[in-house]
Amino acid sequence: MTDRGLMLGSLLLVSLCVGAAAMDSRLDLHWELWKKMHEKMYQNDVEDVRRRDLWEENLMLISQHNLEASMGLHSYDLAMNHMGDLVGHFY
């Protein structure tokens, strides 16, 4: 393995660990149920962690928006759907 390959592998491992550390373990079951409901399967653990991070960000945005809606700041509620593991420019 070249020095560059070793460095890239190390960076990938570090980013995976940081992403995993940032995830809320209380949402593990919710994440697994959501993937099952929407028949989500990812190529590898790295992609699973990346998608989980996006899903958690979207879940928090939805929760924040709905809290604000309950306070009269918005006229509609949001809900999680099959696109919850994507970023805005993909849909």
Automatic annotation (TrEMBL):
Signal peptide: 1-22
SMART domains cross-referenced by the UniProt entry: Inhibitor_I29
InterPro entries, per the entry: Papain-like_cys_pep_sf, Prot_inhib_I29
Keyword annotations of the record: Signal
SUPFAM superfamilies xref list: Cysteine proteinases (SSF54001)
Ranges for domain Cathepsin propeptide inhibitor: 31-91
Keyword Transport tagged: no
One Pfam family in the UniProt entry: Inhibitor_I29
The protein's name: Cathepsin S-like
Organism from which the protein derives: Stegastes partitus
